[in-house]
Amino acid sequence: MTDQPPLRIGVIGAGSMGENHARVYSELRTVDLVGVADRNREVARRVAAEYGTDAVEFETLLDRCDAVTVAVPTHAHADVVSRCLEADLDVLVEKPIAGTVEEGRALAELARERDRVLQVGHIERFNPAVGMLEELVDDLEIIGVEAERLGPPINRDAPGNVVFDLMIHDVDVVGAVLDREPTSISAIGAADGRYATATMEYDDVVATLTASRVTQKKVRKLTVTARECLVEVDYLEQSVLIYRDSYPEYLTDDGQNRYRHESVVERPRIGTGEPLRHELESFVEAVRTGSEPEVTAEDGVRALETVQAIDSRLDRRRQREVNAR
């Protein structure tokens, strides 16, 4: 492995996410960042100069690379990713995998036909706290899951669908943790689509997910209720707390009876690090070995199917509200 030449990787799409991919690739010793392409040539030149590579045209980049990150707007995923796969490149595409489930399935099939790696950029899978949760769940009888992904946008006028942009992260994590698809879905929204809550049943497990762009505090948490314990995951802190053996206790203080609950709280030691770096290292390893990526195209399609179902229920509810006016 150590005597292999660096993997030649390019970045297509030099927006904020693409720039971060370029940054991390430039830091990896096993990668040669061979170029950045973007429809905005000035943006491509700026990012390329920052990370010591070239700003090149799309077709030129395809000829230089072994693999690429695709970080273009979602509506362009199907076209750009398919052209990369047809050029026999391995691809990491930012989430969601495509604009529609049909497009996502077509990309997954094309990757299989071309025998190429197609990894989907569901970055929370590479959060060390989620890794610890995945180690724990095999020993748990899970009853319910709650997720909160809240906060104001960096640009308060930023467009985008809160379900596809934010909730999809937790949809993917919950699907991976439970290793199944939901059997029923309901959803409700507010604040002109900037706040949404979805409730899903996974056989005997209930999951409630909330995403918001109007909450004046940034929150990224997931809580798993199991018969054995309660597990709290903080994505931002990259921490996990396990609450066990909660029991009531009555105390007497100056003749007054007080009631409290005591719990045994475990704080497992987990690794740290930037999830994006872990994600790109995993992609490089999959390309090097030809192995299945950590987040497959099929995983990406499953997450997209779920968020499309959630959004369709919100659309129906919004339409009913409009008709009732």
Automatic annotation (TrEMBL):
InterPro entries listed in its UniProt record: Gfo/Idh/MocA-like_OxRdtase_N, Gfo/Idh/MocA_Oxidoreductases, GFO_IDH_MocA-like_dom, NAD(P)-bd_dom_sf
Gene3D superfamilies: Dihydrodipicolinate Reductase, domain 2, NAD(P)-binding Rossmann-like Domain
Domain named Gfo/Idh/MocA-like oxidoreductase N-terminal: residues: 7-122
Molecular function (Gene Ontology), one example: nucleotide binding
Sequence ranges assigned to domain GFO/IDH/MocA-like oxidoreductase in this UniProt record: 156-224
Name the UniProt record assigns to this protein: Putative dehydrogenase
Organism annotation: Natronococcus occultus SP4
